[in-house]
Amino acid sequence: MVSIAIVAAVVIFAGAYALFVVRERHRLLIAGVAALAVVLLGLVPWARLAPTSLSGQGSVVEWNTLAVLFALFLFAGLLEEVGLFRWLAEEIAAKSHGRPGYLFVGLAVVSFALSAFINSITVLLVLATLTIRVARTLALDPVPFLLAEVSASNAGGAATFVGDPPNVILGTYFQLSFLDFTEHTALPALAALVVILLVFRRSIRVAPVPSQTPRTVRIHQLRRGPIGAALAGFAGTLLALAVQAPLGVPVWVIGLVGGGVALALAGAFGHARELATRFDRETLVFFLFLFVLVGALVTTGAMALVAQAVAGAGGGNLLLTGSLLLWSLGLLSSVVNNVPLAAAAAPLIGTLGAGGLSVRPLIWAAALGSDIGGNGTPVGASANVVGLAVARTEGVAIGWSRYIRAAFPTMLASLAVANLVWIFVH
């Protein structure tokens, strides 16, 4: 039965979601007002805002997720400040010796690999700028390179626990480990990368190979001390996440300690001010408000009704239900940001599991769909928005029409291949 509370929760959530799409710049204000509304209306009890145990559970707000993202954002900023990303990109560009095919594959693979561990926003900020400048030096059209890097970044984000915010949300909600995600999503993500490389590779305009690598390609020197320390701290945080379950250490503790290590290293190497300036506080607060909004759907019973509809469409068959989840989230992620979708999908999967379906395969399907599906349009994921924004500042305009013609069919093919691999694995 649909109650007044359910209607109110759905109307507020849908209204906020619609405003996210048309007023992206004001998403924090919109989410804050909507979250306050559901609390004041009693759709989310005040008591459900705080965790009920040291594990961080019992709250509609995923405090574990916020703590992990805090550490990841800080380490991503630190690794950018010490020059790792730019150095890697320049090494790839230099070692390609001007061969477009090698350069294309190298940059796309770097985008995939880095995005499996680092925030895709940071990755694209560096790669997009370098790619455009190198492509101009070689008289190449930079657009296929950029679109491949964006798509590879989103596919890479699907490969690990920390690769993309939807994975962090799903992983912490269901208390999964780093190894759990890698074991089940890395292979479908790699299959999607192969599709991306094959499709976009055909659109590169081949230029004559220069007699020597352009001097402008390599401009940064590797500072081994700061980079080594930053990588060691980051690897330690990932290792702690991987062994967190057997040790019984709360995830939020690992996130806060990891963030503290990143801040300490930044101060030691003179990057504290830059890191504090660039730290993405807005995204963390946005997630906080978003969890409250989704919590209203859970506490009022709206999510249970959606779960019943999905389970009915799947007929109780795990593979069919998982495929429906993968494709529905994938297509939705093409037009709206995948973070709110993942936040809503987590309790939905939990409800489906309570109905008798195996939960873990559905988690992997949801992660793959929401991450890879973001490739479909310019606003599907943060990597898309950032990559195109950097291109505009460099004088390269990529309109919606050109983006969709190239990326949307590739996204569909990537989802299809990832779906097949997911079925094979499970």
* Terminal residue distance: 35 Å
* Strand runs, count: 0
Arithmetic mean pLDDT: 83
Order of helices and strands: HHHHHHHHHHHHHHHHHHHH
Q: How much β-strand is present in the residues?
A: under 5%
Percent of residues in helices: over 70%
The poorly predicted ranges are: 206-219
Query: How does the major sheet shape up?
Result: none
Number of helices: 20
Overall geometry? globular
Radius of gyration: 21 Å
Protein model, in words:
The chain is mainly alpha-helical. The protein is built from 20 helices and no strands. Helix 7 runs antiparallel to helix 9. The longest helix has 26 residues. About 3% of the residues have low confidence.
Descriptive labels:
mainly alpha, 426 residues, 20 helices
Question: Secondary-structure map with pairings?
Answer:
Elements: H1 4-22, H2 27-40, H3 63-81, H4 84-95, H5 100-115, H6 120-137, H7 142-157, H8 165-173, H9 178-201, H10 224-242, H11 244-247, H12 251-268, H13 272-278, H14 281-300, H15 302-314, H16 318-335, H17 338-354, H18 359-372, H19 382-393, H20 400-425
Give a concise summary.
This protein is mainly α and 426 residues long. 74% of the residues lie in helices and 0% in strands. Residues 206-219 have low confidence and may be disordered.
